[in-house]
């Protein structure tokens, strides 16, 4: 069939090539004549063992030289046909070779003049990468002269990467910007000598790699993971971004004098690290229990984004004073953390803070005394702070820009601060904060003129009908209630929500009825999940409450994931 499609253009994928019996069948596809093809994917199932046959088939599937993108997966031959890597394929820009587990050597790709991106993954039989990879040594063309991105992944037997024979003169990889070597556990030494343009280097799970990088001059981003023997200090002087995922037993301190250009750092599972530079703009710390951060002897005047997870075991009080430019702060699973602090002098300077999230800090009990005086935060998340009883003082005054407040699993939290919540708040989530929900009539929700989205989730054993009179502001456009274990009916107060467009009800097992007056006519989206009695009463035609919801155009009934919404404006969903 393919032989008749001479004007085929764009992209073509040919899968299950193991079903081709002979090379003659592949030849009849006339791939060399399809000059309009831009991208070609060739794939076997990876379970065939006739290496000679597969090589002959791939040889006859040679594409036209106009091709720009080529992917070959699960090819079973021990080597590639000669056309792959021939310099006449001058338009190939991107090449992916994956799961070619029988190949002993990589094809000679160095002479492809336009090749910019190359990925080689899961070549289980390759032990060395050498001169065959670079192509003919008699060529006057620099090997890999156009290559910008090179990836080696899951090369489990790869041990050595030999330099090009005339590397000092020919300078291969002269334009390489990004180099990735992931999960090459036996690779030990001899990487290319000259990588003058390399800006990003990522080495993951290469435990034996001891290589040095004398030809690396402009590297700006470094990622290391479980690479104990890579000489970290040699690579760092010009870095802008550093990521280290474990496996750095000698990494104890990173000082400003050594890394004056470093702006962003992501560190995880570095058990020996105890100090980080002060001049960073972004810092992410995970599972670094011994890290002394923040140090009271430092001032992190440049730091804008900070994330701390399961780290800094001695951190009990987080001093906001030390971070005058901090815009986002995320602290998670720091079991020693008890409070945030800020002096009276500092609080006037928290103008940069835009988002704050505290997650599962089980001993956290307080915000700064006198309130969190930050005029610009738009988002506040508090999740799983089991001992927290009070929100920041005077939120209405000191957090005037707050638009989103999310409270999850804070069982001791039972009231909002005096003066209520900020008037600009438009989204509020209260989930499993049972004491807070129990005092819902005292929270002053009806006094929030900008509130549009409200989610309430909890056992709420005292709630038989919902909502109570005067509980909700008329500004709501979206309302979600979940897990009201005693809720039996929704009452007519819903009719006052004349702007309500979305209503979601989850896990209210006793809920039987909608309001006598029905639902707001503005409603365009209704979602009900795990409410068996209500579902029965709302069956189309026969249900008692069908007439109360029939104004909502329903085009289908389906089972949906809990947080999925269709793009259409008018649907009724049962799940």
How would you describe this protein?
There is one protein chain. By secondary structure, the protein is mainly beta. It has a domain at 452-575. The protein has 10 helices and 31 strands. It has a 23-stranded parallel sheet. The protein has a two-stranded parallel sheet with strand order 6-8. A two-stranded parallel sheet has the order 10-12. Helix 1 (23-27) links the parallel strand 1 (10-14) and strand 2. The longest helix is centred in the first third of the chain and has 10 residues, at 51-60. The protein is flat and about 85 Å long.
Helix-strand blueprint:
Elements: E1 10-14, H1 23-27, E2 37-43, H2 51-60, E3 69-73, E4 94-98, E5 117-121, E6 128-129, H3 131-134, E7 149-153, E8 160-161, H4 167-170, E9 178-182, E10 194-195, E11 200-204, E12 215-216, E13 221-225, H5 232-235, E14 241-245, E15 264-268, E16 282-286, E17 305-309, E18 317-319, E19 328-332, E20 339-341, H6 344-347, E21 355-359, E22 379-383, H7 395-398, E23 404-408, E24 427-431, H8 434-438, E25 453-457, E26 465-466, E27 478-482, E28 489-490, E29 502-506, E30 525-529, H9 532-537, H10 546-549, E31 571-574
Parallel strand pairs: 1-2, 2-3, 3-4, 4-5, 5-7, 6-8, 7-9, 9-11, 10-12, 11-13, 13-14, 14-15, 15-16, 16-17, 17-19, 18-20, 19-21, 21-22, 22-23, 23-24, 24-25, 25-27, 26-28, 27-29, 29-30, 30-31
């Amino acid at each position: 069939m393919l032989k008749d499609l001479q004007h085929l253009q764009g992209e073509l994928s040919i899968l299950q090539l193991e079903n081709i019996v002979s090379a003659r069948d592949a030849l009849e596809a006339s791939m060399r004549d399809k000059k309009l093809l831009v991208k070609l994917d060739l794939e076997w199932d990876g379970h065939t063992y006739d290496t000679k046959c597969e090589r002959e088939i791939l040889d006859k599937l040679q594409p036209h030289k106009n091709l720009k993108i080529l992917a070959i997966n699960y090819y079973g031959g021990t080597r590639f046909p000669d056309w792959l890597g021939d310099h006449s394929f001058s338009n190939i820009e991107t090449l992916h070779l994956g799961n070619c587990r029988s190949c002993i050597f990589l094809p000679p790709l160095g002479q492809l003049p336009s090749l910019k991106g190359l990925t080689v993954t899961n070549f289980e039989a390759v032990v060395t990468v050498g001169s065959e990879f670079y192509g003919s040594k008699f060529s006057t063309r620099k090997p890999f002269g156009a290559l910008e991105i090179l990836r080696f992944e899951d090369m489990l037997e790869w041990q050595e990467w030999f330099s090009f024979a005339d590397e000092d003169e020919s300078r291969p990889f002269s334009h390489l910007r990004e180099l990735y070597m992931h999960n090459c556990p036996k690779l030990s030494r001899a990487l290319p000598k000259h990588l003058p343009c390399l800006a990003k280097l990522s080495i993951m799970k290469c435990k034996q790699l001891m290589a040095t990088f004398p030809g690396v001059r402009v590297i700006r981003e470094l990622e290391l993971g479980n690479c104990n023997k890579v000489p970290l200090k040699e690579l760092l002087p010009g870095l802008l971004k550093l990521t280290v995922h474990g496996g750095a037993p000698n990494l104890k301190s990173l000082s400003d004098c050594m890394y004056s250009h470093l702006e962003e750092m992501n560190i995880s599972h570095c058990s020996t690290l105890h100090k980080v530079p002060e001049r960073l703009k972004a810092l992410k710390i995970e599972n670094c229990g011994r890290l002394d951060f923040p140090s009271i002897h430092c001032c992190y005047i440049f730091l804008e984004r900070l994330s701390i997870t399961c780290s800094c075991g001695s951190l009990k009080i987080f001093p906001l004073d030390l971070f005058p430019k901090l815009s986002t702060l995320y602290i998670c699973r720091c079991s020693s953390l008890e409070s945030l602090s800020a002096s009276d002098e500092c609080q006037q300077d928290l103008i940069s803070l835009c988002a704050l999230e505290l997650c599962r800090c089980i001993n956290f009990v307080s915000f700064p005394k006198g309130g969190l005086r930050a005029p610009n935060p738009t988002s506040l998340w508090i999740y799983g702070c089991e001992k927290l009883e009070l929100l920041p003082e005077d939120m209405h005054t000191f957090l005037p820009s707050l638009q989103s407040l999310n409270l999850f699993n804070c069982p001791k939290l039972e009231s909002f601060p005096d003066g209520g919540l900020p008037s600009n708040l438009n989204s509020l989530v209260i989930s499993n904060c049972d004491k807070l929900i129990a005092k819902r009539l005292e929270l002053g929700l009806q006094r929030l003129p900008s509130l549009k989205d409200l989610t309430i989730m909890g056992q709420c054993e005292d709630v038989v009908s919902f909502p109570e009179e005067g509980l909700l502001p008329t500004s709501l456009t979206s309302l979600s209630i979940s897990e009201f274990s005693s809720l039996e009916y929704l009452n007519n107060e819903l009719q006052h929500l004349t702007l309500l467009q979305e209503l979601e009800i989850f896990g209210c097992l006793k809920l039987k009825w909608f309001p006598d007056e029905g639902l707001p006519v503005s409603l365009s989206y209704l979602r009900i999940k795990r409410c068996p009695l209500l579902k029965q009463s709302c069956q189309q035609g026969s249900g008692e409450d069908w007439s109360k919801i029939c104004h909502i155009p329903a085009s289908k009934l389906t089972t949906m994931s809990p947080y999925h919404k269709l793009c259409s404006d008018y649907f009724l969903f049962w799940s």
